[in-house]
Specification:
This protein is α/β, with parallel strands linked by helices. The chain contains seven helices and seven strands. The protein has two domains: 39 residues, no CATH class; 175 residues, Rossmann fold. Helix content is 39%, strand content 15%. α5 links the parallel β2 and β3. α6 crosses α7.
Amino acid sequence: MSTLLKKFSNSLRTEGVFKTAGKVVSYPVHSLRQRNFIKNVLPNQSTEDKFTWIYSTNHWHSNESASGAGSTLEYTENLRKELPKLFASLSIKTVFDAPCGDFNWMQHLLPRVDVEYIGGDIVRPMIESHSEKYKNDKVSFIHINLIEDSFPKADLMICRDCLFHLSFADTKSVLKNFVDSGIPYLLTTTHTQPDIENRNILTGDFRLIDLLSAPYNFPAAPLFRIDDWMAPEPERQMCLWTRDQVSTALSTYN
């Protein structure tokens, strides 16, 4: 069964006939928007402008989260269950979560854990809104370009649903900034299907990513794995590596 048919079947199961029918009707509009994005936005805009456009137009067209279907409460159920265990096992006290996106699911996790949280994102209007709504003694937000800017001090960096949107060169810059920051651990997304061929893209686009293969060459045995996917989407995990492991991988980045 094709991915599109699987998504249709899953939508019928989880959202019912009427919402699914609405998605089918709006599909041509989304397709036109995607073609416009690829033709006019990707090649011509800065990284910040690209992701601000994606946010402001709800380009990933999720009814629940401006960050897309991968940031819904249903999609992140297992991740929210497993993260407190990871925090406890590593005695994590400060988390740098970037890109933090629209904070849809993380706001439900933080009341259950004793950590200081720093959310970072390149979309300035979203960060300003988060600061107004959610900032407190243990939760703060910063406007940051992960490709160009220095990272804040933390015990753990969560970099979810990010690197598969970046070119090879921009990914290398993000990883270098992580290593330079001194943050001890990186938890990030990698797809787990066999035979993924990593290909270069324009930053802002998307492709499946296998961090264990070239050009990334991350170690095949991460310290921690969390299943982070929901059918019919491609299988993937959040995997934890140390700063030293990332530094070694970066030295072979090609």
